[in-house]
Amino acid sequence: MWSNAKIKLIVRTKEMSLYLFVIDNNIKTEFERFKEYGNSLSNPTLKNEFYKIMQLLREMLSKTGALERLFRNEGKMKDHTCAVLTYYTGKKRDAIRLYCLRFSDNILLVGNGGIKPKGITTYQEDERLNACVEDLQLLDKKIFEAGFAGVGGIQIINEIPIGIEGAEFSIDK
Amino acid sequence: MNNLFGDIPAEVRAEVELQFDVATRIAEVLKAKGVSQKELAERLNKKEAEISKWLTGTHNFTLKTLALISNALGEKIVDVPHEPEICFVPIETYIDSKINNYTFTLNRGSNFFLVDTFCNISPNHVTS
Fold first, then answer.
1. ipTM computed for the complex
2. What is the DSSP letter of B86?
3. Rounded CA gap, A102 and A138, in Å?
4. Which residues of chain B are modeled with pLDDT < 50?
5. How far apart are CA B72 and CA B33, in angstroms?
6. Alpha helix locations (H) across chain A?
7. Staple partner for A79: which of A58, A75, A85, B70, CB 3.0–4.6 Å?
8. Antiparallel, parallel or unpaired: β A107-116 and A17-23
9. How far apart are CA A85 and CA A164, in angstroms?
10. Residues of A71-85 as b/e, b for ≥16 C-beta within 10 angstroms?
């Protein structure tokens, strides 16, 4: 779980704004770390799936935005938006998961992900995946806390956080 | 944007683009016709969860499934470009008036020859 997190707006198209976040002393965003992870995969099926997820994000940016039907909800109901981008949803083989916070059709914050082994049914059963989701859940919580408190220029309008670009959060441990 | 997502192989891009576009097309037709996912599932004797899966933009549709969906919605989902349709008309057919009038006179019991330029002429334009 992170101690410091900073949100970055990485690209804005007419369909949506895509945000990434960087945690603690990392130089790279969580999404960039996921990209490195995906590019290092040696299993051709999983690597192909990783490429497909990347292309799926491109499609959303250029064509539709982050429509609800394109995501599969994970996490808890109270997370508002904890969602996951998936390609393979079967149970017969390993699959790639990329976790995101989907705030609306136009606002998506992409985090990190990894391989979901075929033997598990929930992300909690895998240490890496659980960490990815928990990082996003904490960020989600902090964004909404700041929004409801009117801190850091973040506002919550119709349950959607506005003004998250450049927002920074710290947790005392 | 290329930098952001890295080097995605061209064949993967093409595949995902198609899958995404087909899902978007189905979603648009559902919306335009006011058909819910549940209703489409009932028409196709499928579970609603399967329709949701189709609309994620990642489903690898078979031609059979696409045909079933087209049939259930009364709308083409994909359209493959092809040559203009070829029509056969009686060989003794002659154009009764100017071509622009699109009026034909047909003689019964004739041989046939090929005309490929008047394919969109409706039966109303043909007299015998």
1. 0.88
2. P
3. 14
4. 97-98, 100, 103-107, 113-119, 121-128
5. 11
6. 30-39, 44-59, 127-149
7. A75
8. parallel
9. 21
10. beebbeeebbbbbbb
